[in-house]
Each structure stands twice: as C-alpha cells, then as structure tokens.
Amino acid sequence: MGAYNIDGRFYSLRNVCPHQGAELCKGQTRPLIVSSAAGRYEHERTGEIVRCPWHQWEFDIKTGRMIVDPAMRKKCCEVSVERFDTSVEEDQVVVHI
User: Fold this and answer.
1) What is the CATH number of the domain that holds 76?
2) Quick one: which of 17, 10, 6, 1 has its CA closest to 80?
3) What is the mean pLDDT of the chain?
4) pTM for the complete prediction?
5) Which domain covers residue 61, as residue numbers?
6) Considering its fold, how many domains does the chain have in total?
C-alpha cells in the first residue's frame, strides 16, 4: 500500500504496478507534463503523478488511472492501479479497504 499526501489530502494506491509488479512507492512522484506546442512543455499538478521505477509507466495518484496519450488510450485498454479511500483519524492515516 502506498499512501500519498497531496495538499493535505491523503490518497492510497496498491503498491504494485499492473505492468510487471514493481513497487510503485519506490518510483518518483512527479508533476504532469503537458505540451501546448512542439518543443513547449509545462508542468501541472505537481506531486500528483507516480512513475513506476522499472518501466516508467505513470499513474494519477488521485484516480489510479495510467497517464497515457488519449490517442493511445483508444488503441489500448484502460489501465489503472487499485485506489483506496484514505482518511486521517486521531493523527493516523487510515486506509479503507
């Protein structure tokens, strides 16, 4: 289980990449990189994306969905990591399974 704090809200993901089983918690948390034109890149949603340490697959921490180009999503299937509701109770992070 991987628990992430994004702006004071907690999110939890299953700590297994659906591709080949790497521990997602060992991957980097990153911003979403977007492009408005060729050679132009911006960062959005800082700290909301986790990147698999083995093959660099990226997942939205808030939803568990894999980050992929929309054109590729049509050719492929929707891939996601199991996400769990998470709360803070008496100063402890609680994952609701």
Assistant:
1) 2.102.10.10
2) 17
3) 89
4) 0.85
5) 2-96
6) 1
